[in-house]
Fold this protein.
Amino acid sequence: MAEYAAESRSHRLLAVWGHHAPQLLCGSIVLAVGIGLLPPPGLLMLTAPVALMLFILGTWLAMRRHDRRLCEHCMSSMPLNAAEHAVKMGRRFWMAHTGSEKRFLIPYLIVLLGSNFATGPIGRTFWAVMQLSMIYLILSNTTHRRLQPWCPWCSDGGGGQEEDDDVAPPPLPHNDRQLA
Ligand SMILES: [Zn+2]
Ligand SMILES: [Zn+2]
């Protein structure tokens, strides 16, 4: 009994971690940029980046797990005027779609990794901006996942230009895969 309770508690913890993973990842990126620009003294300079890296990896795994199944926190935090909300998020939807295309993703990753070798004040600023740009990508993907039924790019087969579709989308996101 106690074992079962402990297990369900760790599952719940993992679910909460996964649910908040996008925010945690954004915070980690800011922290990584901070460490990169102002390296901490002594041993921390070696241990902090490693600890952060492990935390990011764990958070990313928790996010993958979260995205595969139905999340009660997501359901309860769904805005009532989701359709209206989605209209304002057009740019994020576009980013989520463009960001997953190879012709954008590969050059982006090359510049992102390449910026690690940039030196001097201008190079370091460029590096920081590139790292911070990941935050927008993460937020775009999170918004897209939650409001996907209202994404004009998904419902229009990738076109996204026409907005004459007045059919009301289902009240909750499609989760047919996640229920399996
Ligand atoms: Zn969630
Ligand atoms: Zn979409």
User: Anything to note?
Assistant: The CA atoms of residues 152 and 161 lie 8 Å apart. The longest helix spans residues 120-146. The mean pLDDT is 85. The pocket of zinc ion (ligand 1) is lined by residues 19, 66, 71, 73-74 (CB under 6 Å).
